[in-house]
Amino acid sequence: MPFAKIRGVNINYQILGDSGPWVALSPGGRRDMSGIETQAKALAALRHRVAIFDRRNCGASDVVIDGNESEYEIWADDVHELLSQLGALPAFVGGSSSGCRTSLLFALRHPSSVRGLLLWRVTGGRFACERLAEEYYGQYIKGAKKGGMAAVCEMEHWKERIEARPENRESLMRLTPEHFITVMSHWREYFLKGIDLPVIGATEQELRSIQVPACIVPGNDNTHGRQTGEALGRLIPKSEVHILFPNHYDEPLSPREEWDEKASEMAALFADFIKRSGA
């Protein structure tokens, strides 16, 4: 797979399909591009060019623990620069969970570069904020405080980043624990400030300002509650909400396999939405 130099960072990416409207999809969590590949392949099969990628600090891309903005704002700007280099702008942008947050920030920061939004498993509420703040940042802050950067390198996520790209060990070990903890703490605050927001990372006023159409598939668990996706649909003016998973799981996460099984149905839904949006 090719790498692109994006704002000084090596980003691993792949393009599926060779014709049709451009779409960029981001996976959930800190997953690599394989986390979105099933959905991307299904959409590419319906004559779309789909860009998927490993965000910085994910997959085989570079680890860069730095920046004054939230990690999601950094990711959104990275996606914009990647699509610009590919000649893919304006594009339909979307993703699941953290990919959904990245896409919303893309639309807010680069409104002229987005044609529409494809959003599923929308995240919001106190439970999601507190759980994800600990999962994405809190546990690593504790690891750095206890054992320094050597201990961080042995934690599952970062160990996988080193295995995928050996240079990432040097990048991590060059950091002082103090710097790592400062940046991670800043990124964690971004989440905790979202407890009372409609969705993590965006205010009601910001969501109402989005002028492009949005296709929303709410989630069905305690991290991605149906009510959060429906609330987002009421706030984005040109949005439509589709309930593909009516049964709620009173668990942090619903079975991923169920979402993979719906990939073709979701791709057809998104393709119809893209067509109706004028692409």
Architecture overview:
The chain has 279 residues and is α/β, with parallel strands linked by helices. It folds into two domains: 3-123 and 202-276, Rossmann fold (3-Layer(aba) Sandwich); 129-190, no CATH class. It contains eleven helices and eight strands. The protein has helices at 34-44, 71-85, 98-109, 126-154, 156-164, 167-173, 177-192, 204-208, 226-235, 256-261, 263-276; strands at residues 3-6, 9-16, 22-26, 49-53, 91-96, 114-120, 214-217, 239-241. It has an eight-stranded mixed sheet with strand order 1-2-4-3-5-6-7-8, sandwiched between helices. A hairpin with a 2-residue loop joins strand 1 and strand 2. Helix 1 (34-44) crosses helix 11 (263-276), helix 2 (71-85) crosses helix 3 and helix 4 packs antiparallel against helix 7. The longest helix is centred in the middle third of the chain and has 29 residues, at 126-154. The protein starts with a strand and ends with a helix. The mean pLDDT is 96.
User: How many domain modules?
Assistant: 2
Mean pLDDT: 96
Q: Strand order across the biggest sheet?
A: 1-2-4-3-5-6-7-8
Coarse morphology = globular
CATH-assigned fold name of the largest domain: Rossmann fold
The count of strands amounts to: 8
Instruction: Extract low-pLDDT stretches.
Output: none
Written as H for each helix and E for each strand, in order along the chain, the element string is EEEHEHEHEHHHHHEHEHH
In helices, the fraction of residues equals 40-55%
Total of DSSP H or I helical runs spanning 4+ residues: 11
- The percentage of residues in β strands lies in 15-25%
Identify the CATH homologous superfamily of the largest domain.
Alpha/Beta hydrolase fold, catalytic domain
- In CATH, the architecture of the largest domain is 3-Layer(aba) Sandwich
